Amino acid sequence: xxxxxxxxxxxxxxxxxxxxxxxxxxxxxxASAIKANIYKKKYSNVPLTCCTTFKEFTRNDIVRQAILRSxxxxxVVRNGEIEDLKQLRNCEIKxxxxxxxxxxxxxxxxxxxISLLLGEMHYRKTFKKTLRYFYDKLIxxxxxxxxxxxxxxxxxxxxxxNSDIIISGIGLDGGPQFYKxxxxxxxxxxxxxxxxxxxxxxxxxxxKKRIITLDEKMAKDANIRLWKGxxxx
Length: 233
Hints:
Blueprint: E1 7-10, E2 25-29, H1 33-40, E3 48-53, H2 54-59, H3 61-69, E4 74-78, E5 92-96, H4 98-106, H5 113-120, H6 127-140, H7 148-159, E6 165-168, H8 190-202, H9 205-208, E7 211-213, H10 216-222, E8 225-226
Helix pairs in contact: 4-5, 5-8
């Protein structure tokens, strides 16, 4: 039974609903902090953790403003430290180095770091481009692994060991975002979605069985439970 001990994870996929249930905590990825604000209009006293990356926060003003305006209780940043965030009051800041974020997410996969590396092999569609991409990331030690959306799910799983994790706005086909951006990387999410698709299948069963999605396609694509409760209208 799904109850208030559950946590909610929000992604930036367009056209997704919000569950009409007061959860224990909300996790948002990048600009989906905007959706978190909509949810908190009804359930105002639920803590919010915003997850992003160094590049997204420093190079994408939409993401930066969405996070700061949401007044989060905690901000998690992958792949670098941001000095401005250290000045925030009443907000816990957690920085993951590239090595730390890979180590953290790897323990959720059946083959640990091997699963993460195999997932990166799905970033490009052709064999030649895959080899070039993999070589570049290997030389620069810059493998990312999970998208920010999937990484937010892993954070929620880690911090709520005995709870269900409800997700909305996270898919595996690189669909469009609910907000507009002029950055080229924001216009096509299919490469990272290819990685996510592999990694969601590589999740250990004890984690995967706790995930519930509001998106029918995501439920089918990832073979996870579908939300059957009320939605916020």
